[in-house]
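Minutes, project check-in
Item: structure for the 95-residue chain
Input as provided by the requester:
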Amino acid sequence: MARGGIINMAASGLELPPDLIGGAARLTLLGREQVSIINHRGIVAYAPERILLQLSDGRLEINGSGLNLSELNEEQLTIEGQISSLVFREDADEE
């Protein structure tokens, strides 16, 4: 059985969200002006037009203009600005 299936079964049996058990990132997008990410693994690249984050299963590229970190801690970060796209990348070496 694939890792995702095991995590989903455990989460269901324990009545917990799968992201809590498996460490998957949880994204909350508020319009095109704010995105919050829980369970990130760090910032790979940072510029006002592009922020690249490490996630447990790859990377997340956030593109836009005037992007800035309004909140940052070990588990969660919030990015504000004009967000134009979110791109998921499986290859951790890609920048």
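Outcome recorded: The CA atoms of residues 60 and 82 lie 16 Å apart.
No further action items on this chain.
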